[in-house]
Each structure stands twice: as structure tokens, then as C-alpha cells.
Amino acid sequence: MFASLWISVLLAVLCHPLLASAGTYSQVTNFGANSSGAKMYLYVPTSLKSNPAILVAVHHCQGTAQSYYGSTPYAKLADQYGFLVIYPESPYSGTCWDVSSTATLTHEGGANSNSIANMVRYTLTTYKADASRVFVQGGSSGAMMANVLAATYPDMFAAVIVYSGVPAGCFYTGTVNGWNSDCAQGKVSKSAQDWATQVRNMYKGYTGKYPRIQIYHGATDTTLRPNNYNETIKEWSGIFGYSSPMQVLPSTPRSGFTKYVYGPNLQGIWASNYGHNVPIFGDDDMKWYGIVGGSTTTTAGPSSTTTTTAGTTATSPPGSGQVQWGQCGGIGWTGPTTCVSPYKCTYSNDWYSQCI
Ligand SMILES: *[C@@H]1O[C@H](CO)[C@@H](O)[C@H](O)[C@H]1NC(C)=O
Ligand SMILES: *[C@@H]1O[C@H](CO)[C@@H](O)[C@H](O)[C@H]1NC(C)=O
């Protein structure tokens, strides 16, 4: 009996990593118009759900689709939750993304942003995926691209997460795959309104809503200076009509990070002790996308100019529980452990539970 127990434990341990990557990762070569020559790789978990969500995971400079597939938690999370992951690959030497040309900064402009949009369209059709649950995340150059996709294809993406990027349009040089060193060095500063106008000009005539966005950045980043965080927050605050944060959540998602909640569509996560490589919080990402933890559908209304005044959802009588998005548990947490109705305190990891 002991022996058979041990064998099943051993089997569970041995099999887990194999089971965790049981899906298929492969290149797709017929996804549609691809004038910029970007490549498409797709991860299809064996546990694929019907009408699945799609996550686009965009690699950094020097990265590849394969390296990003291996180094990020999304394929495993796809196994767990049954969604598809698209890993686009940059066609350029050095594998940064084109976030600097007029074409890529234009809806249907025919450059990298359009190639990625076509990968999404192909996947929606081929897998009968859920057009209302298409998400994007990226690191560094991939984060820049995630911001660009939010600006150029706001109707395609429901939610976005950027790990250490720059605002959409900040890297503009007018050349393909250019490097804007003023932006990288944090020397580009604009008003929220100017940023918002630049975003709107990337998809002229569009009056629909923009995706909800989370921005991570390290306070000691010397590659893409931290001012890019502040400018990105300003950019999307301009789009959503937010001003100052309605909530500041220290030690969130864990010690060394502060979460700033500007409204239902915008959060910033400032990593005091990190440079350019901010860790990926895969479980939290699933919550922002609404893949787990119930609906995170925006309640701010259909307009891109909705004004949510600071404090409208943050004020709650003392003792009545934590507000939406607020922390409600985790190692070292001494604040409220219940949530205002209808939010539920939901375990994220040992460091962090959140009202969602
Ligand atoms: C896109 O271009 C790349 C590089 O030329 C190629 O490998 C890929 O097959 C192309 N895909 C499509 C759909 O044209
Ligand atoms: C950028 O935002 C962070 C977090 O809110 C803040 O600590 C920092 O002082 C801001 N930097 C600038 C230049 O405003």
C-alpha cells in the first residue's frame, strides 16, 4: 500500500511537467496579409475550451517566439484555462518590433501591427474563438507593441498588460524599426490631452471604447527610463478621462510594488526595486483579462471619453470591506479581508488576494 502510494506520488511529480506542456506549439504560415514579414506561432492546449479566449504574447528585443513561449508562464496558464496563445515573431535583425513607422502606428497601415492583427483574425476564424476576449501582453519592445496595438486596434483587444514599455507613439521616428533614444531615455513628455490625440489619430474616425490597460515599470530601469511609465499613465488617462489615482495600494501585488488604480480601465504597478526586468505576474494577468476570478468587464460605459472622477468607486464606509481591485489578503497584509458587494476576495498567490 505504501509502495503504491509512493508510486502515484512519483508519477504525479514526474508527469506534471509533461502534462503541463501537452498542447501543440507550431508555426502558422497562412494567416493572411503579412507585408512586414512577421512570423506567427500558436500554442493550442489540449484542454482548449470551445469559443476560447486568445492571448497575444509579444517578445522583447533579442527574443523569439520560441524563447518567449519558454520563458513566460502563458502556455502553462493556457493548459490550465483552455485559451490560445499567439506568439508573434519580429522579422528584424535584433528582433525589436517596428513601433516607430507611420505605417505601424496606423490602423490597417500594413506594418507589424497589422501583421499581428491578421494573426488574431486568422485565429478567431480558425478556432471559432471569442472576439470579445482577445488580450495582449508584452515585455519591453513587446510592451511597446502592446501599447501600439491598444491604440491601432482598440476594437480588437479587450485588455492589455505592458511590462516595461513606452507610450504608443513615443518611439516614432518615421522609419521602420527605428530606435527613438529621446523616448528610451525618458526625455519625451506630453500632456495627457496631446497623448490622447496622438492615440486617436492612429485610428481616425474610431469612436468606440479602448481596452483596459495595466502598466508595469521598474523604478530603476535604465533601458527605458521610468518616466516612460508616467507618460504611459498620462496617455491612457487622457483617453479614459482619469486624473489622479483613486486608490494607492502599497505592497501590491507584493512587497516592493505599489499599485495605482486610476479607474476601472487603468492601473499602474510601480516596481521600486526593479530595473528593466520586472517579473511577470501570470496569475494576476489572468485576473486582469477576466480569464479567472469572474468578470472584469469594464463598467465605465461604452464611450472612450468617459470621465470617471477619482473617488467614485473608491469611497466606502470604514469597516465595510475593500473596494474593487483592492488587496484583501496575502502574507503580511494587515488591511481589510472582506470586499464591498458584489466583489469577492479572490486568492491570487500567497502574497496577494484581490477584490474582483
Ligand atoms: C510572413 O512572412 C514571413 C517572413 O517572410 C514568412 O515566414 C511567413 O510565412 C509569412 N506569413 C504569411 C502568412 O505570409
Ligand atoms: C512616476 O510615477 C511614480 C509612481 O507613481 C512616482 O513615484 C514617480 O515620482 C513619478 N515620476 C515622475 C517623474 O513623475
UniProtKB/TrEMBL annotation:
UniProt keyword annotations, A-Z: Carbohydrate metabolism, Glycoprotein, Hydrolase, Polysaccharide degradation, Secreted, Serine esterase, Signal
Pfam family, one: Esterase_PHB
Annotated Gene Ontology cellular component terms: extracellular region
Signal sequence region: 1-22
Chief location category: secreted
Cellular location(s): Secreted
Biased composition (Low complexity): 299-321
InterPro entries: AB_hydrolase_fold, CBD, Esterase_phb, Plant_Biomass_Hydrol_Est
Keyword Signal: yes
Span of domain CBM1: 320-356
Biological role: Esterase involved in the hydrolysis of xylan, a major structural heterogeneous polysaccharide found in plant biomass representing the second most abundant polysaccharide in the biosphere, after cellulose.
Protein family: Belongs to the carbohydrate esterase 1 (CE1) family.
NCBIfam families (alphabetical): esterase_phb (TIGR01840)
Protein name, per record: Carboxylic ester hydrolase
Annotated organism of origin: Microdochium trichocladiopsis
